[in-house]
Design a protein that fits this description.
The chain is mostly helical and about 425 residues long. The protein has 2 domains: about 1-185, MFS general substrate transporter like domains (Growth Hormone, Chain: A, Up-down Bundle); about 205-420, Growth Hormone, Chain: A, CATH 1.20.1250. About 80% of the residues lie in helices and about 0% in strands. The protein is built from 16 helices and 2 strands. It has helices at about 5-25, 30-35, 40-70, 70-90, 100-125, 130-160, 165-185, 200-210, 215-230, 235-245, 265-290, 295-310, 320-345, 350-360, 360-380, 380-420, and strands spanning about 250-255, 255-260. It has a two-stranded antiparallel ribbon. A hairpin with a 3-residue loop joins strand 1 (about 250-255) and strand 2 (about 255-260).
């Protein structure tokens, strides 16, 4: 079934896989790098700046993708990324080392991601159909999780002692990704014929002003970050709670293996279970979803996802926590591809780049709500947080349903207007 997808989709999954292996091998550990070479406060500020720059670049990249086309922007972004990794390699060589030059290269990599990602997301919608999107997003989701897992493994093994060698391999992979993008992906959107002045800030704000007036999309976005806020609780309130409340204990298996679990190790184990389940069962879930009612599956996924996190908000029983992770992972497998497929149906086809860039707000606001959960959770406790998680699920269902209903009315109105 994978071979039946458009060649651009297959190639983008390959290049995205390689890019995320590269990114996951380096960026999760860069705070450690800057802490070691400068100091912890500056390290935190630099990482925040890099994230902010990538987000702003993503907004402009989405705008450009609707003007100059998808492939040109993707090729430019991949070339910039390969050059930045080569620069990072040079300024972390055995002969010369500069953390500030490294940070500059990180900013360029962030900008390149902002150029590539919205264009690539729009391109996937360009060449897919309603019948193939859920499967396409399921496969893409599998590739994302597998690549992040591999990247974290490579980075964990080699970052500290073999940073230069790791960067050399990653630079070569980035060059290969650029070649694949330039030679194997075809253009799917010719872009708008526009004067040079229309590349400025005024048309940028006008483009996103139109997106912000699209109430079905805005409602769907609100529903999205209501659900995604749950995922970011794992590394905020839930991780802190488990670290404080789980009493370290040694477990024995057949008198052969001894394993000591504390809160942090338990959370790590639960995260591994979540990732492995996604890697192993994405294909099965995609086949089951095909041909079924995507809305109902998405709502069921929301409920299972929220229920799992609600249990994790208060329980200290290992078996119950493991069951909660299984439940939330099933929910994740159900809602992620169906939500992305339904999102593709409600956005304006002439501004897909801008819409997909704005969709990035779901992750940014989700992260903010995740951090807020750490503050609120310490005040109200785990049981009340569990109730809050379930309330977020209700919000996610309400606004997603509202968005889809508004989208249907908008579509009917447009069709009747065209008919007249």
């Amino acid at each position: 079934m994978f071979k039946s997808l458009h060649p651009n989709i297959r190639m983008r999954i390959y290049t995205s896989f390689l890019s995320r292996v590269v990114g996951s091998s380096v960026f999760p550990f860069m705070a450690i790098y800057f802490t070691k070479h400068i100091n912890p406060t500056v390290a935190g500020i630099l990482v925040l700046i890099q994230v902010a720059i990538q987000f702003v670049a993503g907004l402009y990249g989405g705008f450009l993708a609707d003007i100059i086309g998808r492939k040109k922007l993707m090729v430019a972004g991949e070339l910039m990324k390969a050059g930045a990794f080569a620069g990072m390699l040079l300024v972390n060589s055995p002969w010369f080392e500069s953390p500030w030059a490294t940070f500059l290269m990180m900013l360029l990599i962030g900008v390149s991601g902002g150029l590539v990602n919205p264009a690539a997301e729009a391109m996937l919608i360009d060449v897919s159909t309603k019948e193939t999107r859920a499967f396409m997003y399921s496969v893409n989701y599998w590739a994302v999780n597998m690549s992040i897992m591999l990247g974290l493994m490579f980075g964990g093994w080699f970052f500290e002692d073999y940073f230069f060698e790791l960067l050399a391999v990653l630079t070569a992979m980035s060059v290969f990704t650029f070649w694949l993008t330039a030679s194997r992906i075809t253009e799917t959107y010719k872009g708008k014929k526009t004067a040079r002045k229309e590349y400025g800030l005024k048309p940028l704000f006008q483009s996103y002003g139109l997106v912000m007036k699209d109430w079905p999309f805005i409602a769907f976005t609100i529903g999205g970050f209501s659900i995604l806020a749950l995922e970011f609780q794992r590394n905020n309130f839930i991780s802190v709670r488990l670290e404080k409340e789980i009493v370290p204990e040694t477990y024995h298996a057949f008198h052969l293996i001894s394993l000591q679990l504390d809160g942090i190790k338990l959370l790590s184990m639960l995260t591994v279970v979540n990732t492995l389940m996604i890697v192993l069962f994405t294909s099965l879930a995609a086949k089951w979803i095909k041909g079924r009612n995507e809305r109902k599956i998405m709502y069921a996924g929301f409920v299972l996802f929220g229920t799992g996190y609600a249990i994790m908000a208060f329980s200290n029983q290992i078996i119950l926590l493991l069951l909660a992770v299984i439940v939330l992972t099933i929910g994740e497998l159900l809602y992620v591809p169906t939500r992305q497929s339904l999102l593709a149906d409600i956005i304006d086809g002439s501004q897909r780049g801008a819409y997909m860039a704005m969709n990035g707000l779901v992750f940014q606001i989700g992260k903010m709500l995740g951090a807020l959960g750490l503050i609120v959770g310490n005040i109200i406790g785990g049981l009340n947080m569990a109730g809050g998680y379930l309330f977020l699920v209700l919000l996610g269902i309400f606004f997603s349903n509202l968005a889809l209903r508004l989208g249907e009315r908008k579509s009917i109105h447009i069709q009747s207007a065209v008919g007249k």
